[in-house]
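Researcher: Let's do a round of design. I'm pasting the structure tokens now; please hold your answer until I've finished.
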């Protein structure tokens, strides 16, 4: 098969699994077992098997229903819920579920502090907007994950939270001094290193006030060796972020060499094996020519082998599941439900969430699963359920708009101003109230857009559990809170909350 051919050709030390690696509905456990069995025919050292299972929306999630891995809400939802104990249980449960199917490394937690509300790629992937809450919950998560035998990888060092650009598509820059970086971005990483996190992933971001050569941290000896190893005394594995992201503006092979020279142990590529082959060939040539010294190479090899031994990955080790693993996995559904409910955020008058029986409720929801949950748990005979806003574009207003009292609940993942402005104008014309239902980036609500709504219910995550929690709140069974500033710097309808 293609997979066996790639393994034979590259002889990698590890694999990152992406959605396109596994056929829909297939078991990831069976796929992983086959890869490990094949690689052990040519080497006594098994593969690191990693996934991006951060919680909430995931950029690279290969898991299917067949894998029976609980889809917990986002980090920010967990941050709003605010329970370190729950986050530890989440890590412990997920670690056990992943390790049972052969995944021994999870590229999480995200330890970025979302201090910039315009951040397009971190936002709800962060535990919060201040370093303290990110450190507390990030450490709880990684301790739980690693207690189940799955290595945690903290990311994105030294911090991706204060940028308005996405390193998947361009090279971001953060203009902070060393003192500023130490106070905010590095604080959660210091806590994670002290707690014994197994790995750290570098960010493809430049810091011109600290390093003037324009190199991203991934390719910087100053960040990956002088700061990470010498100043912060981190002894675990260091990984690059995906080396085929647009932020890396070098040929793949040269970028891989520069990352190793900077001090990185593992070079990560999620794309074509052709690029991976180019990386390997260029690295081998750099070692043979002496550009990468044997000492530099051996340092990383020993770190990788050490972590494979620590997490019972080597071939002579039989992984022993911790005694309490079964307890955590048995209560996964209950934990997920509680975290999803606790992660809901609401701004606006409480009465709009559960209005009196004589009020006509109109649900405009294009998400099939949320619409199903509303039909099962919320909808009654007087309610109107629509799939989208297209019916509002005609010259005549819909009949329900002329009812005496109407509350419209409109769902979106991405806030599109034009159609929502049309709904807002209709609401003013007929005296209706409009409540936003959002499972996407909470920082889409700005001083310019928040006036479109009378209320806003945010799930901070679009997992099934988070959408069910949203329906539960609409049924009046749960009253979400509005979290304090500055831990979660949300702009929402209604009066601002008190500071924490």
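Researcher: That's everything. Go ahead.
Model: Designed sequence:
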């Amino acid at each position: 098969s293609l997979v066996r051919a790639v393994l034979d050709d590259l002889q990698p030390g590890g694999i990152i699994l992406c959605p396109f690696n596994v056929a829909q509905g297939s078991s990831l456990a069976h796929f992983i077992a086959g890869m490990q069995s094949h690689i052990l025919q040519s080497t006594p050292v098994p593969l690191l098997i990693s996934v991006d299972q951060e919680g909430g929306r995931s950029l690279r999630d290969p898991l299917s229903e067949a894998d029976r891995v609980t889809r917990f809400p986002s980090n920010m939802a967990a941050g709003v819920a605010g329970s370190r104990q729950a986050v530890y249980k989440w890590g412990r449960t997920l670690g056990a579920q992943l390790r049972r199917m052969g995944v021994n490394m999870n590229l999480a937690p995200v330890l970025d502090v979302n201090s910039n509300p315009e951040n397009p790629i971190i936002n709800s992937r962060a535990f919060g907007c201040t370093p303290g809450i990110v450190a507390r919950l990030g450490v709880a998560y990684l301790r739980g994950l690693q207690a189940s035998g799955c290595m945690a990888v903290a990311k994105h060092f030294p911090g991706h939270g204060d940028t308005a650009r996405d390193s998947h598509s361009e090279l971001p820059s953060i203009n902070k001094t060393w003192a500023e970086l130490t106070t905010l971005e590095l604080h959660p990483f210091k806590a994670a290193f002290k707690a014994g996190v197994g790995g750290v992933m570098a960010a493809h971001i430049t810091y011109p006030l600290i390093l003037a050569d324009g190199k991203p941290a991934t390719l910087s000896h100053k960040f990956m060796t002088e700061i990470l190893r010498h100043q912060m005394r981190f002894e675990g594995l260091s990984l690059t972020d995906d080396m085929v992201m647009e932020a890396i503006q070098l040929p793949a092979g040269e970028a891989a060499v520069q990352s190793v020279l900077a001090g990185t142990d593992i070079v990560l590529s999620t794309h074509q094996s052709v690029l991976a082959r180019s990386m390997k060939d260029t690295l081998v040539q750099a070692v043979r020519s002496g550009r990468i010294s044997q000492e530099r190479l051996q340092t990383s090899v020993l770190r990788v082998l050490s972590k494979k031994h620590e997490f019972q990955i080597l071939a002579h080790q039989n992984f022993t599941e911790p005694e309490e693993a079964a307890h955590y996995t048995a209560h996964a559904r209950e934990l997920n439900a509680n975290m999803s409910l606790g992660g809901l955020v609401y701004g606006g008058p409480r009465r709009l969430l559960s209005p009196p029986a004589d009020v006509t409720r109109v649900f405009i929801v294009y998400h099939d699963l949320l619409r199903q949950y509303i039909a099962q748990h919320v909808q009654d005979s007087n309610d109107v359920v629509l799939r989208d806003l297209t019916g509002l574009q005609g010259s005549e207003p819909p009949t329900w708009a002329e009812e005496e009292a109407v509350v419209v609940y409109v769902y979106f993942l991405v806030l599109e101003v034009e159609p929502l402005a049309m709904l807002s104008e209709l609401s003013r014309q007929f005296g209706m109230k409009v409540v936003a239902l959002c499972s996407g980036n909470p920082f889409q609500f700005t001083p310019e857009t928040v006036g479109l709504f009378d209320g806003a219910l945010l799930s901070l995550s679009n997992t099934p559990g988070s959408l069910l929690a949203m329906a539960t709140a609409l049924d009046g069974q749960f009253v979400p809170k509005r979290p304090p500033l500055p831990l979660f710097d949300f702009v929402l309808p209604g009066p601002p909350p008190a500071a924490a």
